[in-house]
TrEMBL record:
The name this protein goes by in its record: Glycosyltransferase
Domain Glycosyltransferase 2-like: 24-164
Assigned EC number: 2.4.-.-
InterPro entries to which the protein is assigned, alphabetical: Glyco_trans_2-like (IPR001173), Nucleotide-diphossugar_trans (IPR029044)
Species, as recorded: Autumnicola tepida
Keywords: Glycosyltransferase, Transferase
Enzyme class: transferase
Amino acid sequence: MQRIPTSPPYIAPITDGLSRPLWSVMIPAYNCSDYLAETIESVLQQDMGEDLMQIEVVDDCSTDANVEELVRVCGKGRVSYYKQHVNVGSLRNFETCINRSRGKYIHLLHGDDRVKLGYYASLNKLFDKFPEAGAAFCAWEHIDSEGNFSHQSRTEAKEPCVLRNWLHKLAEFPRLQYVAITVKREVYEKLGSFYLVHYGEDWEMWARIAKNYQTAYTPEFLAEYREHKNSITWRSYQSGQNIKDIAKVTAAIISYLPKKDQKKMLKTAKRNYVYWILNETFSAWFISKNKKVAYNQIKTVLGIYRDNYVLSRISLLLLYIWTDPYRIYFKRRTI
């Protein structure tokens, strides 16, 4: 079995006729035991009971701790545990999560993220208010490895709504995190699971959903996305694989748009993503001072898109790397 599927994996409908909960909170986990207890607790504090909420950790053969014991203790008998027979990789683990889910709504909550009190109640209201929506999400906050607040996501609207022109907006640049979004199981059954790449696979999925369904949104900050050096995102940054993967994702998403919009949007998407990744590379340099990461990002960026702004930012970053970074002032540019 391929670790990175080349087409969307099939999600089987539930046909056993047994009663089903409203929610499935599926927690994919791999070597995130330092954070998993916080993740579980953030769900348990708003537990709706077994009849309404399935909660399960799906462990991809973690090696950093006895995850089964951790779940038993932290879950207090309320959280079920499933372990892969072998390490299958993140995409196949997500696929397993979805196939093992029984709820109408599926929340893939990574084992290093957290939800804030009110997440499930608020998204329930969103789905009730906008029943045609295939997915719903909220605004979120970024936290660091210690759980401290870093910054907030952008807001997409001022009040709960169905987002207009959402596919076109998604095509411009990534605008979502797993922790913030819940998807109806029937949507995965129709469209399949995650595929194509190891980094950015979620961006493609949210766009695939937007092509076929409405997406509901609330501007409440009800989720917390954790940034740390052991995350999939950070590991992909070290090799530059993140930008190679995003090139594939961008091409896929652009293909979902009307033909008349594709050429212009492709250029816009490449530019926006490269601008964003350069800002992230600046931040990563000041945090880690890791030249390998910075050089890999620069090299790969130049193969995707370049203009005067990109070249000037790269020149400034190289100056930071080669000289005393505290003597130079720079102003971050946002998209």
